[in-house]
Amino acid sequence: MSLEGKVAIVTGSGRGLGLAYAQELARQGAAVVVNDVDAQAAADAVASIEAAGGRAAAVVAPVGPTETATQLVETAVATFGRLDILVTNAGVLRDTVLWKMSDDDFDTVINVHLRGTFTCVRAAATHMREAGEGGRIICIGSPTGQRGNFGQTNYAAAKAGIVGMVRTWAMELARANITANAVIPVAATAMTATVPYFAAAVEADAKGEPMPAFFRHDLGFGTADDVSGVIAFLASDAAAGVTGQAIGVGGDRVQLWSHPQPTVTAYHDGGWSASDVADAWDAQFAGHLETVGEKFPPLPAELQAPAPDA
């Protein structure tokens, strides 16, 4: 499991989940290129890694443009001599319902999440193939990309697209011994702090207290550090045979997400007219329809916020 001698890039690693990933990779022995648009956050992240005995450098630049991807790879090679691991974590949110979502809302999220993942992976994979020593690509997805979520057209599209790209890259990069996987984290972050359902868990985390077992076990919702172990595993030699997967992690839970598969198949000689489909729908298809969105169980009474005074 040691990452001694390895070099990693973690995008969007000035705070939150990305910072936890960078710190864990450094704890396992990797030198880390930290990336953020906030220069102070990036500097603080580097300082935290160095204070713990690790090695780190920072690239302050927005993810999305090819120039940033090139700079990240060049910094890793120039500073630490090689590149073995890429974690694409950078992201932004512009949440609103479909009919209120502007072009800029959509384009901003797609540019950072989807295009940023593509440009960074392309640059890293190109270098790794030329170096001939294999590598690890770890892309960060979301339950929203797997199931959908109200008000997140842009984010759902980006995160679903990332998992689709990972499956393709797993095939394209296999001969170069480069693995490509997606991690689907569920954790207390700035993005989940505003969701009332998670309030008790987020409050406990902010106080440095253990989260209630309902969140950690039943929902698989935990801290940023809870996700880092899977990241470090996928970055290691122990995961050399794991590629093309979407792996969910949070709290006390790890999951393998399935790839989309047909749930029912039917045939009609001569093809299907609209009336043929209508005639067969209830008997052959209706019972197999998929649900959308996350379905959370009711909060236990002791974790519910008290009702406001009348």
UniProtKB/TrEMBL annotation:
Signal peptide start and end residues: none
Record keywords, A-Z: Oxidoreductase
Domain Ketoreductase residues, every copy: 6-194
Pfam assignment, any one: adh_short
Similarity field: Belongs to the short-chain dehydrogenases/reductases (SDR) family.
Protein name: Dehydrogenase
Organism: Homoserinibacter gongjuensis
